From TrEMBL:
Compartment annotation: Cell membrane
GO cellular component: plasma membrane
Keyword terms, alphabetized: Cell inner membrane, Cell membrane, Membrane, Transmembrane, Transmembrane helix, Transport
Chief place where the protein resides: membrane
Annotated GO MF terms: transmembrane transporter activity
Top-level taxon in the UniProt lineage: Bacteria
Chain ranges passing through the membrane: 32-51, 58-80, 86-103, 110-134, 140-163, 184-202, 233-252, 287-306, 313-333
Designated name of the protein: Autoinducer 2 import system permease protein LsrD
Annotated spans, Disordered: 342-367
Residue spans of biased composition, Basic and acidic residues class: 358-367
Length: 367
């Protein structure tokens, strides 16, 4: 007896990201939300805060946020893996001291002193990466220790003194505009180049895909062929190098090399990265959201300073935004799970062998 083959039923896709239309997956993201918030806050500040819409506002906004923008690039990659680096501000201070001492005492030119400072930053990052990646120590404990170590070396080398004797052409270059009269300083050029490089590395290479896999599950990433130890090592090396580069800029921007330069800067960097949509638990984040997060914090700080608000009030506002950015993803996940349970609790109509709902014959006769 020949059996009729039942037509195959279409199985709905279970992967959550593909359960939504493309426009929703592209637009309804934390990164887009931060960009929209940046546009709204900037527009409101321009219209309501006196002197905020002047050309000097954007200029000093970029000058002040440049170190954070630079360090936030490699920090994003580190946090995506589920790790963290709290020693970045100490590397900035150590780099600043080295530039000052090498130029003043050793007589080296600024480019050579800057190169040596960046190489020392690479060594500092390599120490962090070795202890975290190959030894397997927790990055929080390691970088808290190196935070104190690098800062102690910086203060020990220079003490309470400051080096301020820098060539005027280099201090002017750190504050120079790309075009005379524009609001964009020259420091944006290396930042944009680094942004392109890190965006390509994170979003368009197998190395970047391995970073996300490590953040989601480092053990599974290891069995899938990702060299977890080496990846973490090189990420910390990048963080040390870029932090040292930011230290060179910091020194020339303010014309002063001190052991306590950039104290507390690591908290601003981490706050900006998390506000930009990077998950503190790893496995999620994008660089365009991080850049928007840095600029959002900068705009809020600038607008509140122009309104004569104290530093404490500014810190309260930024801290509240940071807490909200950390809590919001968890709340959204819980709301989605509750909505999914509600839909699954609704009994589905019975279906026959062909996958179609049975038809009431009496109802059909009435039609």
């Amino acid at each position: 007896m020949t059996q009729l083959a039942t037509p195959p039923t279409e199985t709905p896709r279970s992967y959550a990201a593909h359960a939504q239309p493309l426009w929703r997956r592209a637009l309804l993201t934390p990164e887009v939300a931060v960009i929209v918030a940046l546009v709204l806050v900037f527009t409101w500040s321009t219209a309501n805060v006196q002197a905020f819409d002047g050309p000097l506002t954007l200029y000093y906004l970029f000058l002040d946020t440049a170190p954070i923008l630079l360090i936030a690039l490699p920090m994003t990659l580190v946090i995506v893996t589920g790790e963290i680096d709290l020693s970045v501000a100490s590397v900035v201070g150590l780099s600043s001291v080295l530039v000052g001492l090498l130029h003043q005492d050793a007589g080296l030119s600024i480019p050579v002193a800057a190169l040596v400072a960046v190489l020392v930053g690479v060594v500092c990052g390599a120490l962090n990466g070795f202890l975290v990646g190959y030894v397997g120590l927790p990055s929080l404990a390691v970088t808290i220790g190196t935070l104190a170590l690098y800062r102690g070396i910086a203060v020990g080398l220079l003490g309470t003194e400051a080096v301020t004797d820098f060539p005027e052409r280099w201090t002017d270059l750190a504050k120079q505009r790309i075009v005379d009269g524009s609001s964009y300083p020259v420091v944006l050029i290396p930042f944009v180049l680094l942004l392109i490089a890190f965006a390509w590395l994170l979003h368009f290479t197998p190395f970047g895909r391995g970073i996300y896999e490590i953040g989601l599950n480092d053990e599974a990433a290891h069995f899938s062929g990702v060299d977890v130890e080496r990846t973490k090592f090189w990420l910390f090396v990048m963080t040390g190098a870029v932090s040292a580069l930011a230290g060179v800029y910091y020194t020339l921007r303010y014309g002063s090399a001190r052991g306590d330069n950039a104290t507390g800067l690591e908290l601003q960097v981490i706050a900006a990265v998390l506000l930009g949509g990077v998950s503190i638990f790893g496995g999620r984040g994008a660089l365009h959201g991080v850049v928007a997060g840095v600029l959002l914090i900068g705009v809020i700080s600038s607008a509140m300073r122009l309104e004569n608000q104290t530093v404490n009030v500014i810190n309260i506002v930024i801290g509240s935004l940071l807490i909200l950015s950390v809590i919001a993803p968890s709340l959204l996940v819980r709301l989605r799970s509750l909505a999914g349970r509600t839909r699954s609790a609704t009994p589905a109509p019975p279906r026959n062998d062909t996958g179609e709902a049975p038809v009431d014959h009496e109802e059909r006769l009435q039609r």
